[in-house]
Amino acid sequence: MYIIDRFEGDWAVVEYNKRMTFNLPRKLIPAGTREGDIIIISINVDTSITNKLRTKVNKMTSDIFKD
């Protein structure tokens, strides 16, 4: 469970496991969210963009370290 503990400037301080906290940019928090509100956080990997970036980096690396 993630709870908005407080807002500090451009940051939201989020509490989890009843004692640990971390900061999230306030702009990522839905408008109207208040201290004490419980939020749901979901993290997903964009495999399509990740694969494109890996291909690009591998090509750049290959170009730099040509025999």
Can you give keywords for this protein?
67 residues; alpha+beta; four-stranded antiparallel beta sheet; 4 strands; elongated; DUF3006 domain-containing protein; DUF3006
Characterize this entry briefly.
This is DUF3006 domain-containing protein. The protein has 1 helix and 4 strands; from the N terminus they run ββββα.
Tell me about this structure:
The protein is of the alpha+beta class. The protein has one domain. It has 1 helix and 4 strands; from the N terminus they run ββββα. Strands 3-2-1-4 form a 4-stranded antiparallel beta sheet, with no helix packed on it. The longest helix has 18 residues. The chain is elongated, with a radius of gyration of 19 Å.
Shape: elongated
Quaternary structure annotation: single chain
- SSE topology string: EEEEH
Radius of gyration: 19 Å
Q: Number of helical runs?
A: 1
In terms of DSSP E residues, the strand content is 25-35%
Give average pLDDT, whole number.
95
Give the CA-CA distance, first to last residue: 53 Å
User: Into which percent range does the helicity of residues fall?
Assistant: 25-40%
How many strands, which pairing sense, and closed or not: the largest β-sheet? 4 strands, antiparallel
Low-confidence stretches: none
Number of strands: 4
Q: What class, by secondary structure content?
A: alpha+beta
Spatially, the strands of the biggest sheet line up as 3-2-1-4
What count of structural domains? 1
Organism: Pelotomaculum isophthalicicum JI
Pfam families: DUF3006
Protein name: DUF3006 domain-containing protein
InterPro entries: DUF3006 (IPR021377)
